[in-house]
């Protein structure tokens, strides 16, 4: 059976997260519905990252098998046609090795967190950014964020419902930059704990507001205690932007 | 009576244009409703550009008088509070000279047209970009666009319902650039004819697709004939980004 890889974009605002839940609109549900409409098969897809409710993606990757070997362009166009009422779009489709797996073959995930940092609330990007009225010191955030890079026990920045066996992860990149009226936080790692990016972002915002020092952030990490985490950033500003293999 | 200037952002998708129309949701209607809720007065606002249905703004400017002199910060915060259910946001508010007028004092308007130029349809920017699957030659578009700069009779690029007395306008800037997956067209002039930007954009896309040469575009301009215009670009990708005074 031929295996396919899709690169997917979605606006997570209208979905109860990526993963299928009975009776709830999900991104996985939308894609599997489109696959069923296309080829009549009930297919279960695998994804590189199971994003939470309200989280967006510009570079989610999924894989699945089809019974028949369709040209990848046909699969892409058909799925986009069946997804026309959804806020999900297929950006790319390719046939891949049957051993290849969107989740297990992944060697890195990249997330972007967008903060709109201005007095006026967003009209055009409502639901797609976290709006912060007070000025953030992006340089201070970037400097503090470097303490998170490397192999650490991220218990502080892990949701209490996280099902990962170990709280130890290696964060490869933590970069905070000002882009016009926005502050962008980019994080790269082989994998992340549940709500790790939003937890780190919320704590870094405390630094950006001058409420925490870089040392406070380091102490929070070293506490290995969920209670030491700052307020968790909302889902609105979070994007899965890419997966490496 | 003190006069105020507001800078406004809006997602035009849900509005029947800027200008008040009985029984229709409009941007002007939303702002005047918020002003009435704030101070109880029925105020008619003036705007730098009366954008069409579906057209967006990141830098629309409006002016109006209030009976009482409120601090400009109070006006901005109150209006944003009353606009919370709308896709309209006040970015800035200032008290201005009573002679100053958002429309008549304006010396320049700046528009951006965003084309998403990739095979996959937009999921995140649906309604906010014009989606073109075929690759556009942005350099060819930019080169051809220079024929539009200067003082011309823009009859070709003017809607048949345009109410401007003269079809002559001076286009100061026409710039086409590729920005990642998007092609951006920027136009600046003292003022524009009705649908001029969308008409010029649609014709420049013919150049970008290789269907028209730069000479064809020039010939269309010189024809001074609406029938010589290419397909008019949809409202989705158009933004009023700024006004100069």
Automatic annotation (TrEMBL), chains A, B:
The keyword Oxidoreductase does not apply. Its EC number is 5.4.99.12. Residues 8-104, 144-245 form the Pseudouridine synthase I TruA alpha/beta domain. The active site is at residue 52. Coiled coil: none annotated. Keywords: Isomerase, tRNA processing. Substrate binds at residue 111. It holds the Pfam family PseudoU_synth_1. It catalyses: uridine(38/39/40) in tRNA = pseudouridine(38/39/40) in tRNA. It comes from the Bacteria. CDD domains: PseudoU_synth_EcTruA. It is an enzyme of class 5 (isomerase). Belongs to the tRNA pseudouridine synthase TruA family. Formation of pseudouridine at positions 38, 39 and 40 in the anticodon stem and loop of transfer RNAs. Homodimer. This is tRNA pseudouridine synthase A. The gene is truA.
């Amino acid at each position: 059976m031929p295996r396919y890889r899709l690169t997917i974009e979605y606006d997570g605002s209208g979905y109860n997260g990526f993963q299928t839940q009975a009776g709830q609109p999900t991104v996985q549900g939308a894609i599997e519905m489109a696959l069923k409409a296309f080829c009549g098969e009930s297919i279960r897809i695998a994804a590189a990252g199971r994003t939470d409710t309200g989280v967006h993606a510009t570079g989610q990757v999924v894989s699945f098998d089809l019974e028949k070997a369709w040209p990848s362009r046909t699969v892409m166009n058909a799925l986009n046609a069946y997804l026309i009422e959804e806020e999900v779009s297929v950006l790319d489709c390719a046939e891949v090795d049957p051993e290849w797996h969107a989740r297990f073959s992944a060697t890195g995930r990249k997330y972007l967190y967008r903060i709109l940092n201005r007095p006026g609330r967003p009209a055009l990007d409502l639901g797609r950014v976290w709006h912060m009225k007070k000025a953030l010191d992006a340089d201070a955030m970037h400097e503090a964020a470097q303490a998170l890079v490397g192999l650490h026990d991220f218990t502080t920045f892990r949701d209490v419902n996280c099902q990962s066996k170990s709280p130890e992860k290696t964060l490869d990149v933590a970069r905070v930059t000002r882009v016009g009226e926005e502050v962008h936080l980019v994080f790269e790692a082989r994998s992340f704990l549940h709500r790790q990016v939003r937890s780190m972002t919320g704590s870094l915002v405390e630094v950006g507001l001058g409420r925490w020092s870089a040392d406070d952030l380091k102490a929070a990490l070293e506490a290995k205690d969920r209670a030491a985490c700052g307020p968790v950033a909302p889902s609105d500003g979070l994007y899965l932007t890419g997966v490496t293999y």
